[in-house]
Design a protein that fits this description.
The complex is a heterodimer of chains A (400) and B (104). Chain A is α/β, with parallel strands linked by helices. Chain A has helices at residues 11-22, 48-51, 64-69, 124-133, 147-158, 179-191, 234-238, 284-298, 366-377, 384-388, 395-398, and strands at residues 3-7, 28-33, 72-76, 80-84, 89-92, 97-99, 102-105, 109-111, 139-143, 162-166, 195-197, 202-206, 209-212, 217-219, 222-225, 229-231, 247-248, 260-262, 267-271, 277-279, 310-315, 318-324, 331-336, 342-347, 353-361. Chain A folds into 3 domains: 3-42 and 59-110 and 230-298, FAD/NAD(P)-binding domain, CATH 3.50.50.60; 124-225, FAD/NAD(P)-binding domain, CATH 3.50.50; 317-398, FAD/NAD-linked reductase, C-terminal dimerisation domain (Enolase-like, domain 1), CATH 3.30.390.30. Helices cover 24% and strands 28% of the residues of chain A. A 5-stranded parallel beta sheet of chain A has the order 3-2-1-7-18. Chain A has a 5-stranded antiparallel beta sheet with strand order 21-22-25-24-23, with helices on both faces. Chain A has a 4-stranded parallel beta sheet with strand order 11-10-9-15. The longest helix of chain A has 15 residues, at 284-298. With 104 residues, chain B is mainly beta. Helices cover 0% and strands 45% of the residues of chain B. Chain B is built from no helices and 11 strands. Chain B has a single domain (4-102), classed as Rieske Iron-sulfur Protein. Chain B has a 4-stranded antiparallel beta sheet with strand order 2-3-4-9, with no helix packed on it. The radius of gyration of chain B is 13 Å and the shape is globular. Classes of the chains: A alpha/beta (400), B mainly beta (104). The interface between A and B is medium-sized, with 17 and 13 residues. The complex binds flavin-adenine dinucleotide and FE2/S2 (inorganic) cluster (FES). Flavin-adenine dinucleotide (FAD) is lined by residues 7-13, 32-35, 42-43, 45-46, 79-80, 106-109, 121-122, 148, 232, 235, 264-266, 282-284, 287, 311-313 of chain A. FE2/S2 (inorganic) cluster binds next to loops of chain B.
Chain lengths: 400, 104
């Protein structure tokens, strides 16, 4: 195989370039991204990039000199508009045709839109736009109490904006975060002066107001949607690949075409560690791990993806981390590391740990979440009493 | 020129663990490896300046608590994403149960 083409310019694409060369792949690598920039980091866009005093620069995942040393041919600012599986080539918006031996689709996800008056956040330009608007006293209305919406609320309120979050469900972070922890985050937002409207349905949105079904009208200088992102599957779908909550991959991150792999936010795959459940993970570390699995298999290995998912979110001084699946285990065990730091273990009926969620100031829960991840990876069944007892080090379960 | 400073007692650092040590306006991390050797590095991750002492030590690796970047604390070498820059290391010696580090 002489030529690998990577469609996309995010984390999964960047790691693919590095992984191909670290596996000693000698052929050509072409990366095609519709963004003007080389791959950069997205998590800061809702956090530090908004608060930093000086205008932030993108944080590169591939610096220009690394691209050069990896001998990656990067086409920036141009989209792939078609995958021709029969001729094994991709067709770009500028009509050029590039043949591939193997293809990696790493097209990520796009925020769901709420129409012309509502901003979204996905890329560096979006963050610069929000920076201009997050000024003292500005009325910011955020639709959606998920991670992006809440991180934006935290950043905007730190900057002295008057923030309202509108959530249709009866609580924030309904998907994937246990209620107990969502409540701690909720209270922290309320403490910061953010108005959280739950079970609230929107009727219409105009340029400077959100009208609710109950008749209320919320004035806004800026309205932002944080109502989730859809996997970017159009190219794959039009090429006839199987789609199932994202581009459907098997456990090797291979799509229904054996020469085409996918990784990151755009795809779903079979997770062998969790009883073959099909998952789509929109998480930064997972994009790296999926990309590594895809490249290893593209180059001839047979490596099922087994990395335990991990995710973090920063809001105010609070650090949230989740590993495994918080919504899978029917049994919950609480471990209180301190007055403010809490870990919940999510156990299957047979005692196997399937997930752990932690919240606390700074990085106070990080070490135990890491150990929980290792416990999950080993399918261990530690005693519930010991898990709940912070004086029993989690490391002790992993020895022997 | 050497400048040996007492950072801890040997009992002050658990086996396969890390201790934070602040001195002269700087912060350091003191490690005790599973084979009972002591090492010292800068205390902040080279990615986003987070205290490494909140991270997990596994063998000769410290994993950053923030984004799971990893370093070999015996050499300071960054071990992959998102950390690119290595950690600075410092010489360590043990004298009568004291862990001394050389801040030169
Ligand atoms: C604001 C923000 C904050 C986040 N914070 C966190 C966090 O705190 N913790 C966490 O774990 N995760 C976080 N994430 C999620 C994490 O950043 C994503 O999971 C990760 O970026 C996914 O990487 P990816 O490579 O799959 O996709 P992306 O990073 O979305 O990259 C996809 C790339 O493909 C390009 N592309 C799409 N279609 C085409 C086409 N047809 N032709 C050419 N190029 C194309 C896009 O322009 C883009 O460059 C955050 C995401 C955002 C947006
Ligand atoms: S701060 Fe250490 S990995 Fe990011």
């Amino acid at each position: 195989m002489k030529h690998v083409i990577i469609i996309g310019g995010g984390m999964a694409a960047a790691r693919a370039c590095i992984n191909l060369r670290s596996h000693d792949f000698q052929g050509e690598i072409t990366l095609i991204s519709e963004e003007q920039h080389l791959p950069y980091d997205r998590p800061p866009l809702s956090k530090a990039s908004l608060i930093a005093e000086d205008e932030p620069q993108p944080i590169w995942l591939l610096e220009p000199d690394i691209v050069k040393s990896l001998q990656v041919d990067a086409h920036l600012g141009v989209a792939v508009c078609k995958i021709d599986r029969i001729a094994k080539q991709v067709i770009l918006a500028d009509d050029s045709e590039l043949p591939y031996g193997k293809l990696l689709i790493a097209t990520g996800a796009k925020p769901r839109s709420l129409g012309p008056h509502v901003l979204t956040l996905r890329d560096y330009r979006d963050a610069l736009e929000l920076r201009k608007r997050f000024k003292l006293g500005q009325k910011i209305v955020i639709v959606g109490g998920g991670f992006i919406g809440l991180e934006l609320a935290s950043s905007a309120s730190k900057l002295g904006c008057k923030v309202t979050v509108i959530e249709a469900q009866q609580r924030i972070l309904l998907r994937g975060v246990p209620e107990r922890i969502a409540k701690i985050i909720h209270d922290r937002h309320v403490g910061a002066g953010v108005e959280l409207l739950l079970s609230t349905v929107i009727e219409t949105i105009t340029a400077n107001a959100v009208k609710l079904q109950d008749g209320r009208e919320i004035e806004a200088d800026t309205i932002i949607a944080g109502i989730g992102a859809s996997p970017e599957v159009r190219l794959a779908q039009e090429a006839g690949l199987v789609i199932d909550n994202g581009i459907a991959c098997n456990e090797y991150m291979q799509t229904s075409d054996p020469d085409i792999y996918a990784a990151g936010d755009c795809c779903s795959f079979i997770h062998t560690q969790f009883d073959g459940r099909r998952v789509r993970l929109e998480a930064w570390r997972s994009a790296q791990e999926q990309s590594a699995t895809a490249i290893a298999n593209m180059l001839g290995e047979t490596k099922a993806h087994s990395a335990v998912p991990w995710f973090w979110s920063d809001q105010y001084e609070l650090g949230l981390q989740i590993t495994g699946f918080a919504d899978m285990g029917p049994v919950t065990v609480e471990r209180h590391l301190s007055e403010q730091a809490l870990i919940l273990f999510h156990l299957a009926a047979d005692g196997r740990v399937l997930g752990a969620s932690g919240i606390g100031p700074g990085n106070s829960i990080a070490r135990d979440i890491k150990l929980a991840e290792m416990i999950i990876a080993k399918s261990l069944k530690p005693s519930m009493q010991a898990l709940a007892d912070p004086s029993v080090p989690l490391k002790s379960f992993l020895r022997g | 020129m050497s400048n040996w400073i007492e950072a801890s007692t040997t009992e002050g650092v658990n086996n396969e663990d890390v201790l934070r040590f602040d001195y002269g306006g700087k912060t350091f991390a003191i490690f005790r490896s599973p084979d009972d050797k002591f090492y010292a590095t800068d205390g902040l991750c080279t990615h986003e300046k987070v205290h490494l002492c909140d991270g997990l030590v596994m063998g000769h690796i410290i994993e950053c608590p923030k984004h799971n970047g990893r370093f070999d604390y015996t050499t300071g070498n960054a071990q992959g994403a998102p950390c690119i820059l290595n950690l600075r290391t410092y010489a360590v010696k043990i004298e009568s149960h004291k862990v001394l580090i050389n801040l030169e």
